[in-house]
């Protein structure tokens, strides 16, 4: 049920979607930061994805204190992609942004974000963010060529050798016009338990008309949380395989396939190498499956593009990927 104070019945300009799942230790910080960013133009959509700890009571406590707050409860745990989609479906604002339940905003961030989005009037805008690890704070910048300037989203994909905007998968570091979501046009892939953000960012750059990068870094990303999906050691980590398989299939049918495939293949290869380099931290069955799926994924890629990609990788990763690829060819 929506909770609105008297005099706040006008349609909001910005909808903030915040999924929560078993983050009771951090939810109060996230929700307190929403309170310090509340205003007449902002609504908060708090999605409890069937938490089994004290998260629901923390969310309820703050929902009664936040203006324009709606609590959405999932009867079963369906994952962060579906939780974000529930928020998108309930959103009324002209713009949508996201925050994870263990992260937080600096005071005034949402007002600055909304003002910048209105000024530029592009389909989406990305921001920098502050990476928080314990007491350490480091600003991570979105790798855009220009700031506060409306750009072509496909130009944000760019060449394989450089880090570009599709290598910056933090969907909560941005703001998105509702026209991207109308008629179900853009949603998170609910079959993905991880890497859903990477596919989402690629699809935005492929299908939106305009974007910008903003000189803002008011969102704080908490690293090293034990309950975070980035810390899990089981098969959910391997969902980057179907994510990038889907991406390659879609790009293969794109009008700019020849131009875009090298970047997609390079990024997929980098993900395979990254996960194999730390395979020993995964559960044994997951590590075994990782090696098998890595080899078959390399075999599925467009081989001329893959061969060129492997010549451009650094020696360590190139050797690892060739060993996996040769194993599959021998099989």
- Give me the count of strands: 12
Order of strands across the biggest sheet? 1-4-3-2-5-10-7-11
Assembly category: single chain
The total of helices stands at 10
**How much strand content do the residues show?**
15-25%
Span between N and C termini? 56 Å
Low-confidence stretches: 1-7
Q: What general outline do the C-alpha atoms trace?
A: globular
Q: Which sheet architecture does the biggest sheet show? A: 8 strands, mixed
Structural class determined from secondary elements: alpha/beta
Helix coverage percent: 40-55%
How much is the radius of gyration in Å?
A: 20 Å
Order of helices and strands: EEHEHEHEEHEEEEHEEHHHHH
Average pLDDT across residues?
94
Describe the structure concisely:
The protein has helices at residues 24-35, 55-63, 80-90, 109-120, 196-207, 240-252, 257-277, 284-300, 303-312, 315-330, and strands at 2-3, 14-20, 42-48, 69-73, 95-98, 104-105, 124-127, 129-133, 136-140, 174-177, 211-214, 219-222. It has 331 residues and is α/β, with parallel strands linked by helices.
Can you lay out the helices and strands and say which pair or pack?
Blueprint: E1 2-3, E2 14-20, H1 24-35, E3 42-48, H2 55-63, E4 69-73, H3 80-90, E5 95-98, E6 104-105, H4 109-120, E7 124-127, E8 129-133, E9 136-140, E10 174-177, H5 196-207, E11 211-214, E12 219-222, H6 240-252, H7 257-277, H8 284-300, H9 303-312, H10 315-330
Parallel strand pairs: 2-3, 2-5, 3-4, 7-11, 8-12
Antiparallel strand pairs: 1-4, 5-10, 6-12, 7-10, 8-9
């Amino acid at each position: 049920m929506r909770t609105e104070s008297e005099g706040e019945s006008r349609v909001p300009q910005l909808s903030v979607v915040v999924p929560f799942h078993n983050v009771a230790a951090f939810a109060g910080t996230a929700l307190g930061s929403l309170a310090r960013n509340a205003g007449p133009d902002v609504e908060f959509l708090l999605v409890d994805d069937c938490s089994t700890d004290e998260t629901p009571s923390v969310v309820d406590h703050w929902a009664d204190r936040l203006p324009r707050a709606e609590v959405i409860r999932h009867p079963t745990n369906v994952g962060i992609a579906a939780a974000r989609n529930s928020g998108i479906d309930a959103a009324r604002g002209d713009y949508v942004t996201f925050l994870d339940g263990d992260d937080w905003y600096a005071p005034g961030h949402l007002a600055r974000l909304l003002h910048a989005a209105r000024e530029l009037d592009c389909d989406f805008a990305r921001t920098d963010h502050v990476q928080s690890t314990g007491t350490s704070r480091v600003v991570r910048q979105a790798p855009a060529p220009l700031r506060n300037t409306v750009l072509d989203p496909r130009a944000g994909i760019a060449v394989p050798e450089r880090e570009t905007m599709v290598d910056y998968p933090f969907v909560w570091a941005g703001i998105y016009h509702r026209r991207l979501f109308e008629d179900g046009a853009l949603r998170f892939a609910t079959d993905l338990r991880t890497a859903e953000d990477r596919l989402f960012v690629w699809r935005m750059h492929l299908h939106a008309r305009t974007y910008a990068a903003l000189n803002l870094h008011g969102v704080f990303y908490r690293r090293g949380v034990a309950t975070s999906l980035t810390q899990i050691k089981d098969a959910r980590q391997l969902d980057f395989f179907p994510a990038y398989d889907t991406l390659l299939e879609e790009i293969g049918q794109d009008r700019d396939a020849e131009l875009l495939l090298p970047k997609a293949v390079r990024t997929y290869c980098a993900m395979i190498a990254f996960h194999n380099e730390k395979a020993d931290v995964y559960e044994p069955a997951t590590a075994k499956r990782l090696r098998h799926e890595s080899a078959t994924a390399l075999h599925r890629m467009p081989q001329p593009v893959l061969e060129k990609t492997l010549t451009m990788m650094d020696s360590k990763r190139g050797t690892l990927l060739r060993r996996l690829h040769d194993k599959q060819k021998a099989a």
